[in-house]
Amino acid sequence: MYTFQEIIKDIPDKRSNKSTTSHIFKKDLWQYLSANKFNSALEIGTAKGYSTRIISQFVNKIYTVDNNIDNVKYAQQNNSKFCNNVTYLHNDVYNDNFRKLQIEDIDLCFIDACHDSFHVDYDINTCRLYSSKKLTLIFDDYGLFPEVKKVVDEYIKNNTFEVIKKIGETKGSSPRTGKTLLDSEGIICSLIQNA
Fold it and tell me: Which residues, in sequence order, are CB contacts of 3 under 8 Å at separation 6+?
């Protein structure tokens, strides 16, 4: 396994690339994953594959999906040195055909695709379809996009999610130039089994 510094050596911070997370988020994610055991993950929103690279170090298998073929190709090439346990999927997660794919039982899901209420809720339910055991969900942009926060908070309020921890930069900071966080950059939740 690589060290955190080796993994992020060529990965930008959110201040220089708005489509990624801050280095603080990445460090918090690394620390959380290194302290917990997961088998199989689904990442919704590959982008450049930076989070894929981190998650891949701590799971046996990770599926990552993006509707942009250039993103998928870039992530695959950029991560080839660091991980060989990734299945890259060029697909539209919001197309019902995606939900027919054979993805093994996941226990971890990283959500970072569309940031409106409908799509965040759809992502959550997609993750639930692929999991029959305890499921942990990690949300990027929780404090950046109000609709992401609104949906996640509703699941928490309805006792469907239990908050594990908030990660990344904190409320009031600006990891994305010109935008101030309304809450933490990210949040990790577990799905309450009987919900």
Answer: none
Q: Considering its fold, how many domains does the chain have in total?
A: 1
Whether residue 28 lies inside any domain: the answer is yes
pTM for the complete prediction?
Answer: 0.95
Would you say residue 13 lies in a domain? no
**78 found inside a domain:** yes
CA dihedral 153, 57, 84, 48 (to 10 degrees): 50
In terms of DSSP H, where are the helices of the chain? 4-8, 23-34, 50-56, 69-79, 117-129, 146-157
Q: Read off the DSSP letter of residue 104.
A: P
- The reported pLDDT for the residue numbered 195 is 55
- Please state, in angstroms and rounded to a whole number, the distance separating the CA atoms of residues 169 and 151: 20
pLDDT tens digits, 44-61: 999 999 999 999 999 999
Tell me the pLDDT tens digit for each residue of 98-111: 888 888 899 999 99
Report if residue 46 sits inside a domain: yes
CATH for 81: 3.40.50.150
C-alpha count within 13 angstroms, C-beta hemisphere, residue 91:
17
- Find where tokens 């701590």 sit: 58
Note down the domain range covering 95. Answer: 19-191
Which tokens sit at 10? Answer: 């060529």
